[in-house]
Amino acid sequence: APLPPAAHQALWNVNLGAQPQKPTPKAPHSLERLPVPVEVSVSDPRMINDGIRRYTAFQVAGTFALSGSTALTEFSVQRRYSDFEWLRNKLRLLFPGVVFLPLPRKQAVGRFEASFLEERATGLDEFLRHAFKRPGIFRPGSALVAFLTCPDSTLDRVRQDFNGSSQTLGALYREYSEAFGGELQHVRSQGNETGGGSVTDEPAFAETKAALELYVRHLDEAQRWASGLCEAHQRIAQTTAEVHARLSTLRDDDRRLCEAGAEVRSGLISALEQHSAVCTSVPSGHFEQLVAALACEHRHAEAVLEALDSIACLQRRVQEARRRVSEDEFGQARLRRRAFSDEYDAAPAQQPEAARSYQSHASGATLPTAEMRERKRDRIYDAWDKLRRRDPSRQLEDIREQLTKDRQQVDQGEQWLQASRMLFAGCEIRSFFAAKHEGQEQAQRYLLEAAARTSQRLAEVWSGAAAERAP
């Protein structure tokens, strides 16, 4: 079933408010933007048994250039599937709104079979090649560069270091802006030229997500029915061969009964034999190309949905920062009320005097040993700490400083959220439409040409058989 008009319109409304138009295959960010050639390949799956467990390692090799540099860096490492999972999760966390292709699905049974490992290596290779289309993420010290270059023996420690490090929203936003500064500038200029609507509109993104979820469900149904069509063509090929075998048996019976009857069936049997040969050469009727195109489109659509989820995750982080600001503001108001209450009117004047008298009394006392004098000095410092903690004015200063920092984090988080939505609406969704359009064109062209050739061969078979039987 086609997408409803409202859902289809929602997919385009998020695109800077532009009117629906035919997408072009040219994406805003592609390998053509790289100043130097890059390449990557995932191959040679090997099963490793360390005595405790078995796992598969893939050979990852190629070259890349750091952002802003033309010097090539070669790499050749072995990585497990879990390493790819960590990398993808890290990239989605650092670059919300950016589409990263999903990894091949897991499989509990037969995960060490050669066909499954080859299919998994192909999927991992596709994931990395798609990630390599974004030269901005190749920054020194980034997760992707560490994944590609660190030795196999130290990767676990590197992963722990990345997982344990905590960066502020401001630092992450600066890294995001540096990685996708060109794309964001392109989207802003295009929005100014077209006079498009706001790309940070919450309802527009909610409608887009709902439309994409419906689109993925329709892709599931289309893929399932296309697979059924392939199976139906395979059954037709098998059934045609069975009919040919049964008619051949009947022809033998005719020869035993009447020689003329055998000649009547010979033309039909010959045509069925050729028909069976044609069907056997294309048992799925060339519809496997359609199934593959739908599966590829389904993976890309899931990746787009996950990019929207990463924006929602960033939005939750910004909301958490807002909550901290609210708590700081509440604490500041509470301490301000305490500072001006009757209970603390005399405290600021009395506390320093009490501390001075306590210190002079302790210093004038005669202590027998240096150890006792050290203990007395520690008690004096503890008293000062208690007095300082009781002073609401000092707490107000600390809260003011923290409140200023938290407000800055909220502002930078809001800018990061807006930038991620701009990048998604202006680049990622357009790239998705362009890739979808190109894949559909290729699958349709191949299917029509292949079906035309098959139909022509079948027509020649049956027209030839009819010509032989013509009086």
Describe this structure in words.
With 471 residues, the chain is mostly helical. It folds into two domains: 33-165, Phox-like domain (PX Domain, 2-Layer Sandwich), CATH 3.30.1520; 197-342 and 390-470, Substrate Binding Domain Of Dnak, Chain:A, Domain 2 (Up-down Bundle), CATH 1.20.1270.60. It contains 13 helices and three strands; from the N terminus they run H-E-E-E-H-H-H-H-H-H-H-H-H-H-H-H. It has a three-stranded antiparallel sheet. The two termini are 49 Å apart. Mean pLDDT is 75; it is low at 1-37, 193-199 and 342-367. One of its GO terms (molecular function) is phosphatidylinositol binding. This is PX domain-containing protein. Residues 341-372 are annotated as: Disordered.
The amount of helix comes to over 70%
CATH class of the largest domain: Mainly Alpha
Beta-strand proportion: 5-15%
- Class by alpha and beta content: mainly alpha
Number of domain modules: 2
Q: Going across the major beta sheet, what is the strand order?
A: 1-2-3
How far apart the termini lie comes to 49 Å
The largest pleated sheet is described as: 3 strands, antiparallel
CATH topology of the largest domain: Substrate Binding Domain Of Dnak, Chain:A, Domain 2
Query: Assembly type of the shown chains?
Result: single chain
CATH architecture grouping of the largest domain: Up-down Bundle
Rg, Å, rounded:
35 Å
Please give the number of β-strands: 3
Q: Would you tell me the overall average pLDDT?
A: 75
The CATH fourth-level homologous superfamily of the largest domain:
Arfaptin homology (AH) domain/BAR domain
The helix count comes to 13
Flag low-confidence runs: 1-37, 193-199, 342-367
Order of helices and strands: HEEEHHHHHHHHHHHH
Domain PX: 36-154
GO molecular function: phosphatidylinositol binding
Region (Disordered): 341-372
Pfam families: PX
